Amino acid sequence: MCKKEQGHTKKVQALDAKEKKRYYRKNVEFFKLLEKIKLWPSRSGTLHGIKTITIRGNTAEIVTHCNERFIVRNSRNSRAARWLRNKWHLGICRACRVPEWKLEKYSATGLNQFYGSNL
Fold this sequence. Notes:
Strands 2, 3, 4, 5 and 6 form a five-stranded mixed sheet that branches. The protein has a two-stranded parallel sheet with strand order 1-7. It has helices at residues 3-18, 30-37, 79-86, 100-108, and strands spanning 23-25, 39-41, 46-56, 59-64, 69-73, 91-92, 110-112. The N and C termini lie far apart (41 Å). It has one domain (28-112). The mean pLDDT is 84. A hairpin with a 4-residue loop joins strand 2 and strand 3. Helices cover 34% and strands 28% of the residues. By secondary structure, the protein is of the alpha/beta class. The longest helix has 16 residues, at 3-18. It has four helices and seven strands, in the order αβαββββαβαβ. GO terms for molecular function: aminoacyl-tRNA ligase activity.
């Protein structure tokens, strides 16, 4: 293989690694989705990073990196579940300091009804 071909294959591999798209099922259990994504959209539209999730039956307590606490119910049709599935958010919490790689991974993740991992 000549040097020109080697350089081209390295560029293709770098693009493939950068643009790797993950797929999850769209209608999975809400708490499993939260444990996997580790992001929480608050009512104001701010995206927070999740520090801990404590599941107690049909409810869970979420503690973010900015030490806000949310008590949420396990509902696939809730506002937060819809916002996570559709990737809606108005801003990112500065106190949580969500890393750029996590936001890129979240935006590259596809949620499909018939294709992807069941978590």
